[in-house]
Design brief:
The structure is a homodimer of 188-residue chains. With 188 residues, chain A is mainly alpha-helical. In chain A, 73% of the residues lie in helices and 0% in strands. At the A-B interface, helix 8, helix 9 and helix 10 of A face helix 8, helix 9 and helix 10 of B.
Amino acid sequence: MDKREKIFEKALELFIAEGYDHTPLSKIANSMNFTKGGLHHYFKSKEDLLFFIHENRLKNDLIPILELSEQISDPEKRIVYFLKNYINKVLTKDASIRVLVHEINRLKPKHQEKIKDCWRRVFDLIHNALLEMEDLDKIKKMNKTFATFSLLGMCNWIFYWFDYSRKDSADELSDTCLDIFLEGIRKV
Amino acid sequence: MDKREKIFEKALELFIAEGYDHTPLSKIANSMNFTKGGLHHYFKSKEDLLFFIHENRLKNDLIPILELSEQISDPEKRIVYFLKNYINKVLTKDASIRVLVHEINRLKPKHQEKIKDCWRRVFDLIHNALLEMEDLDKIKKMNKTFATFSLLGMCNWIFYWFDYSRKDSADELSDTCLDIFLEGIRKV
């Protein structure tokens, strides 16, 4: 982990513990024995820092899962692979996603757009898989946009209620979500 | 609508349009031809105002649906009635729930507890219905806490993506969520 990433991790830890609003840059600097000027060498503002942290987390945690998922040709297996990994390795990893999603509207519009591009890719992955499953006559007639958002809602709500001290339940959780969703859309 | 509720509605409108942080009490006062002191007659602080708005919305929109649902003896019909009304009359009514849920951590702990009591009642409604359906051998073996949160996630995520200028799609949306969930949990 380079110095920049160490700052990201420390800042995120403080944001989770004390809230984004209650964590001034000076506190982050102090906790790492930096001067505030020293921190400014790495980014220009707290907004910049929040964006870099968000981008870094997506790049390290979410994008690799997306890339591997996109290579799976069977649409149902694609959904299963993505969901299992998204829940087990991103959503239940730690409480950071709660902070990042919650504070997304603190970002400048151009930064928000970059983050949203990544979430649109997640939406497209699921939505396209549903379109392909429909072509294969595997799912019943339904609004696939609403079905996609339903699945993403099941997942994304996890960070509001999940007990991060009990991470061993992640597997059962992702199995439950997948089972409800896949049986719920299947053509009988 | 009494004067107090008129202030709530106006403040909520400003919170939706400009964000809670960017709406000082003076702006709310100005928009209603009040002095700031005049507003203080109704509540002591912006935090108080946010809490009263939240409590008022729950009392007017959510609690009546909860009360009627709790009287339905058939557990599946209870879920259907609650979900249809929760999605059609609360979640897709306007963007207020987005602001209220998003800003819940601005409330004092004692106020947060009061709001959370209401959401616990929602959780219990669904969870108890699933326990009863299990006793009737209508659903497959599953973690009913996770299933309850999955359904609530499907619903509660709606305010993040729903297009409030296209409210006529609310019925199709609630039907899609219910169909996926009920078919997804059903014993085959």
